[in-house]
Amino acid sequence: MRLILVCKEGPARDAYLRETASLGVEVDTVDSFGDLFKTMMINAYSGVMVDVVTSVRASRDEKTIAQDILDAFPIVQLRWDSATNQISVISQGNLSGNGILPNFIHEECRSFSPRAIRLDVRKTIHLNIVMCRQEQINASNMERSVSVNISKGGCFLYSSRDWSHASEVWFIVNELHDKTPILGEIKWRQPWGKSMAIPGIGISLKHIANQQLVQLQEEFGI
């Protein structure tokens, strides 16, 4: 199993590498999201680890690149406390609650087939969305949302709700003629209030009707 770590060189990176080495995991390191993109085009990985401080200091362009990557891989955000020499898990893919790094590695990465990044172009298109945890979407259980960006393989949907216990989402795109609910697999989450970023869920398209995909391609150039 091979993971990749986004973290500037220094004590934090050293701490993460010591921890992963004790777990018997092979880890490649990069300094930035730009380097992450280049490296993941060449090598296949089973998961991504991101140092929170490195992420906060990244430019908007770098974070846009990262969104294209992170919705397709297990990801964990880490923070190292220099005072206690402790590693904290800030958020973690499909795991619920406050997890620890070994859980992320054994529960998510080990079952994820290594892959390189996809090359789908993600566009900033704001489609009107209603979504729900169940296939039967109605006024009592739906959340009104909007797509932040979208590609052939996935999208990022705005949401301020807690999706930590959900692995899938059903949603309807208002602009599509076919209002059949689309099934998405949640790949990563951006919780509300945790950072200065748009909250929501990054998903891969698990089931979408062919006519829906055709309309997205023809009308929106996806």
Describe this structure in words.
Strand 7 and strand 8 (154-158) form a beta hairpin. The strands form two sheets. The chain has a six-stranded antiparallel beta barrel with strand order 6-7-8-11-10-9. Strands 2-1-3-4-5 form a five-stranded mixed beta sheet. Helix 2 runs parallel beside helix 4 (60-70). It has helices spanning 11-22, 33-42, 52-56, 60-70, 101-109, 210-220, and strands at residues 2-6, 26-30, 47-51, 75-81, 86-92, 128-132, 143-150, 154-158, 168-173, 182-190, 200-207. The protein is built from six helices and eleven strands. The chain folds into two domains: 2-109, Rossmann fold, CATH 3.40.50; 128-220, Beta Barrel (Thrombin, subunit H), CATH 2.40.10.220. Helices cover 26% and strands 32% of the residues. With 222 residues, the protein is α+β, with helices and mostly antiparallel strands.
